[in-house]
Amino acid sequence: MSETKARIAVLTSGGDAPGMNAAVRAVVRAGIAAGMEMFGVRHGYKGLMAGDFIPLGAREVGGIIERGGTVLGTSRCEPFRTEAGQAQAVGRLKAMRIDGLIVIGGNGSQAGALALAQHGVRVIGIASTIDNDLAGSDVTLGATTALDIALEAIDRLRVTASAHGRVFLVEVMGRRCGYLALLAGIAGGAEAIVIPEDELSPEDVATAIHAAYRRGKSHAVVLVAEGARHDADALARYFTEHVERLGFELRITKLGHVQRGGAPHIFDRIYASNLGAAAIEHLQTGAHGVLLGLTGGQISATPLGALAGMHKTLDPRLIRLAHVLAQ
Ligand code: F6P
Fold it and tell me: pLDDT (tens digit, 9 = 90+) per residue, 179-206?
């Protein structure tokens, strides 16, 4: 009699991130290599509640490693936050006789994964969000590519800023976390960086710009995190109101979702491939209820329960470095 194959499902949830497809591909192919039967859940937790499963073979995940977004689709699903929504999802998993579920996503998605684990589902999380705000991983899947995209835009903006001697203000995503703005600001040579973890007032920003001009710079670039108290709109309002006194205008670029939609770069493709394979290895050994990420350069597994309510902080050394290098 042939042994029954383990049935494993994978979903992507929340904001898409470059590398999600590469992770889905790795999960499916590593699962097949391990003798498992693989399924995708379409549109994240919304699809899970609706029982929207599709069988996935090696060919179904061909030609996606280089694609941004997620071929499975994703969603932000309010009903899944409720006890009834989670019970419905668990019912769908039972009806499909799913033995293990892999959840690729960020903070909200991993909170959902923990809820499923508490309902007895064997679940593995893969840390994936451009925001890099997820405790349990030094860097989340997609954040590095999103930074590269932001950096390319910043480099271009500096060229035109320099040509005109202008001040450009660039707002990047990141929800309440300043990671993207801080790293893009350091790497992009920003004169000032405004992040929730190191709030600068509009006057602080004006002082930094004046100081840059006094030091002989012909232009200035200011990086702003969308979650900062003084975001791009607030700073723009302030500088327009005080333009005569401050003596310069701002040009604003909000990168927004542009950062999210890019093709994954080399780091994220390899990282996703390692994470996907590690998820299958964990299920094979009977380990579950963990978030997979990167800690000290190694793929790490942290119990989802230990991460609940934990807040990832920015490295204060990087914040200090940003101030030093902006001189
Ligand atoms: O969490 C990823 C992210 O891109 C955040 O940086 C941003 O605040 C949010 O998602 C935007 O969400 P939505 O795509 O639902 O507008």
Answer: 999 999 999 999 999 999 999 999 999 9
pLDDT tens per residue, range 121-165: 999 999 999 999 999 999 999 999 999 999 999 999 999 999 998
- In a domain, residue 318? The reply is no
The pLDDT of residue 28: 98
> In whole angstroms, what is the distance from residue 176 CA to residue 104 CA?
20
Shared domain for 23 and 70, answered yes or no, is yes
Each residue's pLDDT tens digit, 22-64:
999 999 999 999 999 999 999 999 999 999 999 999 999 999 9
Closest CA to 43 of 34, 51, 31, 32: 51
- 170: pLDDT strictly greater than 60: yes
Q: Same structural domain for residues 31 and 137? A: yes
Nearest CA to ligand 1 atom 4: 15
User: What CATH number does residue 182 fall under?
Assistant: 3.40.50.460
**Residue 105 Cβ < 6 Å to ligand 1:** no
Percentage helix, strand, coil for the chain under 3-state DSSP, each rounded to 5: 45, 20, 35
| Nearest atom of ligand 1 to the alpha carbon of 106 | 1
Is 270 in the same domain as 137? yes
Instruction: State the catalytic residue, choosing from 131, 133, 148, 198.
Output: 131
**Catalytic site includes residue 133:** no
Determine the structural domain holding residue 207 and report its residue range: 144-261
Phi, then psi, of 53 in degrees rounded to 5: -100, 145
The whole-angstrom separation of Cα 123 and Cα 125 is: 7
Mean pLDDT of the chain: 96
175 CB under 6 A from ligand 1? yes
Q: How many helices (H) and strands (E) does the chain have?
A: 12, 11
Same domain, 100 and 124: yes
Atom of ligand 1 nearest to the CA of 76: 15
CATH of the domain at 285: 3.40.50.450
